[in-house]
Write a structure and sequence with these properties.
The protein contains 13 helices and 13 strands. The chain has 365 residues and is α/β, with parallel strands linked by helices. Strands 6, 7, 8, 9, 10, 11, 12 and 13 form an eight-stranded mixed β-sheet that branches. Strands 1-4-5 form a three-stranded antiparallel β-sheet, sandwiched between helices. Helix 9 links the parallel strand 10 and strand 11. Helix 5 crosses helix 6, helix 7 packs parallel to helix 8 and helix 9 packs parallel to helix 11. It starts with a strand and ends in an 8-residue tail after the last helix.
Length: 365
């Protein structure tokens, strides 16, 4: 079996309340953008992958298939280790979508859901953490109440513009829902070590589950130092990229929790390896969400289902989509999703939806 063709589709799906508008410290958005990657094989098997558009902006055109055809046609679509080792893809964003499609193909030709190829089922219901952009305290409180009513038990909010603002909405959420929600806040590298340390101390009375990536990604020694100075647990996301970087984090004891993502680490397999490596140091993992559509959501479900160390609620904004590009969108019941049971990713792409939400009509599914 060989890869016979590649197609790519840049799509944008509108978001709805309570996600939209989703405000981080540096951008606001009311759409979920993604690059969908379709790999066709000479026996007719088709695999789909997804890479987030959110962090690449206008660097993506939807015409990435031109270069990918040069790199991939004629290769073995099941040679995932070889792809990581020497195929010379970009090492991150687009590679992660290619690798996802390769896993989808491998599962389909084996007739098995992806979680079985990743080690077998550990959990069949995946717990989700609801997410919130930056909001005024009164709005944050009302949305937190809504999430409790929806059955979620963990909430992650954006942060990072101003420590006083962060403390105000944390207090408002705690006043509104008490301990009914585990609470995480994510400044997205927004603070200096000095500000991050003081804020971590100021947050201690609010019993956060963790304080995610408050400082730039390379400040691992500062993260290790601050961990010793506060009882607020520190988590790292932007710092979690390669296995070597993760080993460094663990050696320094720089994080209580790690948040890998496929686009940062280059695919599902590195996220699997990071989960296992972190387990050896007793550090749990959470799968990060980049505002994911159906394919990347399915990939998350399979990975978490097959990896014991992804033991906390995993980030999710799926419930904030107006629609999806798969024929049978996932259901969230009491803050959980079921793991797909079909072969590969276990999803069917709705090509009409892909056309409907396609931004640049450079390819047709």
């Amino acid at each position: 079996m060989k890869i016979s063709d590649i197609a790519t589709f840049l799509v944008e799906v509108p978001q709805k309340h309570p996600i939209a508008p989703y405000q981080s410290r540096y951008r606001a958005a009311s759409k979920t953008g993604a690059l969908l990657i379709q790999i066709k094989c000479d026996d007719g098997t088709i695999g789909w992958g997804e890479a987030p558009q959110r962090y690449l902006g206008d660097q993506l055109t939807g015409n990435e298939s031109v270069l990918l055809r040069e790199q991939l046609i004629g290769r073995d679509p099941t040679a995932i280790a070889a792809m990581h080792d020497h195929w010379g893809l970009d090492g991150g964003y687009i590679q992660s979508g290619v690798e996802m499609a390769m896993w989808d193909i491998l599962g389909k030709i084996c007739g098995q859901p992806l979680y079985k190829l990743l080690g077998g089922l550990v959990r069949e219901r995946i717990e989700l953490a609801c997410c919130m952009g930056l909001r005024p305290p009164h709005e944050a409180a009302e949305i937190a109440k809504l999430y409790v009513s929806m059955g979620f038990t963990t909430l992650k909010t954006k942060a990072g513009r101003d420590p006083a603002e962060d403390l105000a909405f944390v207090k408002a959420i705690r006043d509104a829902v008490g301990d009914e929600l585990q609470l995480r806040i994510d400044p997205n590298t927004g603070y200096s070590p000095e500000v991050a340390e003081q804020l971590a101390k100021d947050l201690e009375p609010y019993n956060l589950q963790y304080f995610e990536q408050p400082m730039p990604a390379d400040l691992l020694e500062d993260s290790a130092r601050i961990r010793k100075a506060t009882s607020t647990p520190l988590a790292l996301n932007e710092s979690v990229t390669t296995l070597a970087q993760v080993r460094r984090i663990l050696e320094l004891d720089a994080a209580a929790i790690l948040l890998p993502d496929t686009y940062q680490c280059g695919g599902l397999w590195p996220c699997k390896l990071i989960g296992d490596l972190a387990a050896s140091a007793g550090v749990p993992c959470v799968m990060h969400c980049a505002h994911d559509l159906g394919p990347k959501t399915a990939a998350m479900l399979h990975l978490v289902a097959a990896t014991p160390n992804y033991s906390l609620a995993n980030d999710c904004t799926y419930y904030g989509l107006e629609d999806d590009v798969i024929k049978h969108p996932f259901e969230i019941v009491h803050g959980h999703m079921l793991v797909p049971q079909g072969p590969g990713l276990g999803i069917d792409i709705d090509v009409e939806k892909v056309r409907k939400y396609q931004v640049l009509n450079t390819s047709s599914p």
